[in-house]
């Protein structure tokens, strides 16, 4: 693989990373996982290129890493929101049971 083809593969991985970040922001976990697998293939293909890591390649890799961190952050935030909602649901269910037990005695 030539250096240009390697850079093209990295550029494709960057585009996929942007799509992964967008899917994570939308909460579309299945799409994010599917795109992540596609990104991995693009990165593995680019890794086989015979070129020196220069400033341009380093910048693309930094952007990919930043987008990956952003996507992970978005998904972790959604996970915490879901966990909090489940906790609140459990609190509400316990309150209903407790209130129901008190009103039944009257």
Tell me the CATH architecture.
Up-down Bundle
**Rg from Cα:** 23 Å
Low-confidence region ranges: none
Oligomer: single chain
Keywords:
106 residues, 3 helices
Protein model, in words:
With 106 residues, the protein is mostly helical. It has one domain (3-105): Up-down Bundle (Methane Monooxygenase Hydroxylase, Chain G, domain 1), CATH 1.20.58. Helices cover 89% and strands 0% of the residues. It contains 3 helices and no strands. Helix 1 (3-26) runs parallel beside helix 3.
What's a concise summary of this model?
This protein is mainly alpha-helical and 106 residues long. It is built from three helices and no strands.
Task: Set down the secondary structure blueprint.
Elements: H1 3-26, H2 29-47, H3 55-105
């Amino acid at each position: 693989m030539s250096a240009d083809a390697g850079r093209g593969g990295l550029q494709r991985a960057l585009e996929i990373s942007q799509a992964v970040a967008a899917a994570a922001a939308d909460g579309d976990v299945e799409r994010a996982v599917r795109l992540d697998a596609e990104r991995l293939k693009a990165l593995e293909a680019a890794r086989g290129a015979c070129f020196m890591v220069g400033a341009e390649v380093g910048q693309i890799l930094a952007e990919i890493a930043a987008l990956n961190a952003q996507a992970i952050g978005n998904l972790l935030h959604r996970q915490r929101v879901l966990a909090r909602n489940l906790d609140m649901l459990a609190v509400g269910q316990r309150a209903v049971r407790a209130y129901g037990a008190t009103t039944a005695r009257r």
